[in-house]
Structures are given as C-alpha cells and as structure tokens.
Amino acid sequence: MTDRITKVCGVCGRFRPYHPDDRFCVVCGYDNLAAECACGRLFDYALAEPEGEPLHCPRCGKDWRSSRSEF
Fold this sequence. Notes:
mainly beta
C-alpha cells in the first residue's frame, strides 16, 4: 500500500491527499501540484483545518487561502 502525502494545486488552491507520483489535481485537472511550501514545510497540517478558514504555513507564514481566487 502506497502512503499518501498532502499536495496543493497551484491553480485552484485545494489541498488533498495524493499518492507521491500523482501530478494532476482531482478538482481542476491541472498538473500543478506541490507537495511542500516554498520554505520546504510539508502540507501535513493543511487537511486538519476547516475549508474556508485562513490557513498559514507554520514555518514561513505564507497565507495559502486568501491569496487564491476561484478559477
């Protein structure tokens, strides 16, 4: 069984669990998934937070939700 990791889509901004070799977003279909923040912090914290609430990287403080617009 393959472990899943949390990735975020750079287009629609949605966090989801993916297999490590998955490249395409299940919501919008674009191949713009990232497994970590620009600072190197993994997104393991993101799935526990309610959708629609602010979400900041605990290492660098990047705002992951309010900077995204609906695609």
